[in-house]
Design goal:
It is a single chain. A hairpin with a 4-residue loop joins strand 11 (345-349) and strand 12 (354-356). This protein starts with a helix and ends in a 21-residue tail after the last strand. By secondary structure, it is of the alpha+beta class. It has 27 helices and 25 strands. The strands form 8 sheets. Strands 5-6-7-11-12 form a 5-stranded antiparallel sheet.
């Protein structure tokens, strides 16, 4: 808390005064240290910003520091640290004072950025103050003598020490932030940031009037995932949301699969779910607005949080028991102890001196408003499916023609779709993918093949979609999704879907839906392939203009479609389908740039989506739901031919397999809900040109450059030519089966493979060769391997070795012992290995003079004892 008594005793302007908490604000400011003039400029910027909000400045104080507790890096980057003290204006209560302080802070940050000044506002509040830095946690009170001063009084403190895992450690990014401290990673942060920026056009709250633009951008550039969540959390609280409601909105528990939740609590979560996607990932959070202080875990509970309450009402919540042990001989007894479970929170109301457990908090939030009534008034459930939907059953000739136009192969039907329709699971095969990258392939490839999903990194683990299914969710809402800052009720009508994958029958029911406020507009996605890249670009511009025009005319659901009226019209359409991923991304970006993205949701009705990758990329680049009409028609035809399951059952199983595949992809990023995945762009592009990426996939890493609209249009034209040739052959009475490109299994006339049979056999002969046959076997293997450089399959095949010139003298190379000393076997936990394997690795690394270190599970203390031969078994 802001130490009003301490500050009154140290600031001349407050001499003899005893202000109450909330009457004065304290702001901790990092300023340039080496340049006195720049520091003075920074102070002037802060004072000007406060003056712009009619906030009187009472004075400044240099924050005392003891530099001997800093390391070299921290000392070299040490800012000047000062505190500004300001008075609450007479016409403002504490809540309005806090809003003006936020506006002043953002104004100061913008002014400093414009001036090229290194200024960071650590905190600026009438209730809380932050001390932080680039130093060991145990040295905090030694570095900041303020914290050891007996006059400093506070009812709570949030303390966080950690090393930075996803950002380079700096003074500004040290924990905690203005509202929270966060241990973990927010795997969804890229999508969260993008949607927050898109929502700004819809933000409105009575307490702000017309002042909200002064807060933007809500999420500040260059912040960590923790800092970004803190930015949005702060805005919700300052907009009038109670702090516990704000956190439960941003980081909800996994309520979707909870059958034990009572209806009132479920209604609370269901009301807030369409307003914002969860900030998801392994997280332990400690937070406070100065009135409520609390702690919470993410929905998976992948970070620990344990608590103890003593008889003298000291509550300690920490990652481990024993973090804080009260000193002295008369230690109060522990009267309650426990741990937070997945998605749970606990808090203390400082004004009332009351401890709140999770059930208390959610029960209180559930009783704050008639959430169930508001949900019922706003929400429509899954529409009734139409069994006569177009495109469910196609004539064989029409089906084959459509499959060729959209890029299907015989392999896709046999290896991908058949098991999905027959068994309800994706196909499983071994040996990975040794076919060429799409950009290096000699076959026409779909646009989705140029994308690779990123995986959870560092300490944000992937999750198990089977064991974690209870907290995972595929629920989506269609319609205008606004009102995050609104006190309620938000009345925009919405359609609730339990899956983002739709059958043609379900989509037909959606198109027939008659609900006031739900307006569906269909946007055909076609172009003249003969016109090449220019025609494709023109069609994309027209599609974007049509999307904006439809929203302006009141549309709340946009259907980007390869089947504008019936599936047959798409099959025989003289124009070609725009690749669905490109069409969706174009519409999505156009609405974002127009500030209208939250006014409507995007559904895609496409012919070129049949794998999980296809669906995942469509969702990640803007779609809320996908109707793969041609894949459904193909699965029905396969089922009719096989007879094992009915066509309707085959479609259901295909949808189930696709949903399972999506959950698997979410889990690889450690994400639990499809809402947090939608629009996130959590892919990298391999082989896409930067101009294309900037226009339609902004923010997607594409380090190599590559193709553009011209090449994409050429791929579409190539598929059209294949379809036209086959149609002519069939019309003349010939046979024209679907091509088998051999993307998965090697085919002699199909796609090249890194482990082609001829190369594998050559390697086997080399391994088995005797001395006399060794040279020719090696020459043959080298010859076959060299073809990968002539016709590259992977990025490394594009690399060549430069001649080294003169050979190095052996004496110029470090001895083996010195090189081995830098080897390390890193952090393999005992839980991932057997004790025998673990100790063998440790002993082996020690024997060769290298290093090893234990994983998080630690080691058996018995291993610390030397063995009979003197060797060690511990890391």
């Amino acid at each position: 808390q802001v130490p009003v008594g301490f500050l009154a005793a140290t600031l001349p302007a407050l001499a003899g005064q005893t202000p109450a908490l909330g009457d004065i604000a304290a702001g901790t400011i990092f300023l340039p240290r080496a340049d006195g003039a720049a520091a003075e400029h920074g102070r002037a910027i802060v004072e000007t910003a406060l003056g712009g909000q009619a906030i009187p400045v009472l004075g400044w104080r240099e924050v005392p520091t003891v530099l001997e507790f800093l390391g070299d890096q921290a000392r070299a980057s040490l800012p000047a640290i000062a505190q500004v003290i300001a008075a609450r204006p007479a016409d403002a209560d504490v809540e309005e004072f806090e809003r003006r302080l936020l506006l002043a802070r953002r104004a100061a940050e913008r002014a400093a950025l414009a001036a090229g000044l290194d200024l960071y506002v650590v905190s600026l509040s009438a209730r809380t103050v932050v001390y932080k830095g680039l130093l060991a946690g145990g040295d905090l009170a030694s570095f900041y003598p303020d914290l050891a001063d007996e006059r400093y009084e506070t009812a709570f403190t949030i303390f966080h020490q950690r090393y930075s895992t996803n950002t380079a450690p700096t003074w500004t990014l040290a924990q905690p932030f203005r509202f929270l401290a966060h241990n973990g990673e927010i795997n969804t942060v890229q999508g969260n940031r993008r949607w927050t920026a898109a929502r700004e056009a819809t933000f409105a709250a009575p307490v702000w009037g017309d002042r909200l633009p002064g807060v933007y951008p809500t999420v500040q550039e260059g912040g960590s995932d923790s800092a970004s969540l803190d930015n949005v959390f702060e805005l919700l609280r300052r907009s009038g949301k109670p702090v516990l409601q704000a956190l439960a909105t941003l980081v909800p528990e996994g309520w979707e699969g909870r059958h034990d939740l009572d209806s009132a609590r479920r209604a609370f979560y269901e009301y807030h779910a369409p307003l914002t996607e969860p900030w998801d990932g392994p997280a332990a959070l400690a937070f406070s607005d100065g009135v409520i202080v609390g702690a919470a875990l993410d929905r998976n509970g992948l970070r620990p949080a344990r608590y103890r309450l003593t008889a003298d009402n000291l509550l300690v919540v920490a990652s481990e028991v024993g973090v804080l042990e009260p000193a002295g001989s008369e230690v109060a007894a522990v009267v309650e102890a426990g741990r937070l479970g997945p998605g749970q929170m606990m808090a203390v109301n400082l004004a009332e001196g009351r401890l709140l457990h999770h059930d208390d908090i959610i029960g209180m939030l559930a009783a704050r408003a008639p959430w169930a009534e508001w949900v019922a008034a706003r929400q429509t459930t899954l529409p009734v499916a139409r069994p006569d939907a177009p495109g469910l059953d196609l004539e064989t000739a029409d089906l084959l023609h459509a499959q060729r136009r959209f890029g299907y192969s015989a392999e896709d039907l046999r290896i991908v779709l058949t098991p999905m329709g027959a068994e309800g699971h994706e196909a499983v095969w071994s040996m990975g993918d040794d076919a060429p990258l799409a950009v290096l392939s000699g076959k026409p490839r779909g646009l989705a093949d140029y994308f690779r999903q990123r995986f959870a990194q560092v300490t944000n683990p992937p999750i198990d979609p089977l064991r974690e299914r209870a907290v995972m969710s595929l629920d989506v809402w269609l319609g205008a999704r606004t009102g995050l800052l609104t006190a309620g009720p938000v009345t925009n009508p919405l359609v609730h879907l339990t899956s983002p994958v739709l059958t043609p029958a379900t989509l037909a029911g959606l198109l027939d839906l008659k609900v006031e406020g739900i307006v569906v507009a269909t946007l055909p996605a076609f172009f003249d392939a003969a016109g090449g890249g220019e025609a494709l670009q023109t069609a994309l511009i027209e599609l974007q203009e049509a999307a904006i025009r439809a929203v302006d005319n009141g549309a709340t659901i946009l259907v980007v479609s390869h089947a504008p009226s019936t599936a047959q019209s798409a099959i025989r359409n003289p124009q070609s389908a725009i690749p669905s991923l490109l069409a969706v991304a174009a519409a999505h970006q156009a609405l974002i740039r127009a500030g209208k993205r939250l006014a409507a949701e995007i559904v895609v009705e496409v012919g070129d989506a049949w794998t999980t990758q296809h669906h995942a990329t469509l969702l990640a680049y803007g779609a809320a739901a996908v109707c793969p009409w041609l894949a459904c028609a193909s699965v029905r035809a396969l089922a009719e031919e096989d007879g094992t399951v009915t066509p309707d059952e085959a479609v259901r199983r295909f949808i189930t397999a696709t949903e399972e595949g999506l959950l698997k992809l979410l889990s690889k990023m450690g994400i639990s809900t499809i809402r947090s995945y939608q629009g996130s762009g959590l892919f990298e592009a391999i082989g896409l040109g930067q101009e294309l990426v900037d226009a339609y996939f902004p923010g997607t890493p594409s380090p190599l450059g590559g193709i553009g609209l011209t090449e994409i249009a050429a791929d579409v034209a190539a598929r059209e030519e294949i379809a036209a040739t086959a149609a002519a052959t069939l019309a003349a009475g010939g046979k024209a089966p679907l091509a088998d490109h051999g993307f998965v299994r090697f085919r002699r006339d199909g796609e090249r493979h890194g482990y082609a049979p001829v190369l594998v056999k050559s390697l086997q002969k080399l391994a088995e060769a005797s001395n006399g046959d060794l040279a020719p076997a090696a020459a043959r293997f080298t010859e076959l391997s060299a073809t990968k450089q002539e016709e590259p399959l992977t990025l490394r095949d594009l690399l060549t070795l430069r001649p080294a010139g003169a050979a190095l003298a052996v004496d110029d190379v470090e001895p083996a012992e010195a090189i081995r000393h830098r080897f390390i076997a890193t952090a393999m936990s005992l839980g991932a290995l057997s004790p025998e394997a673990y100790t063998t690795l440790s002993a082996g690394m020690d024997l060769m003079g290298a290093r090893s270190n234990s994983g998080e599970g630690g080691e058996d203390p018995d291993w610390y004892k030397p063995q009979a031969d003197g060797r060690r078994r511990h890391s």
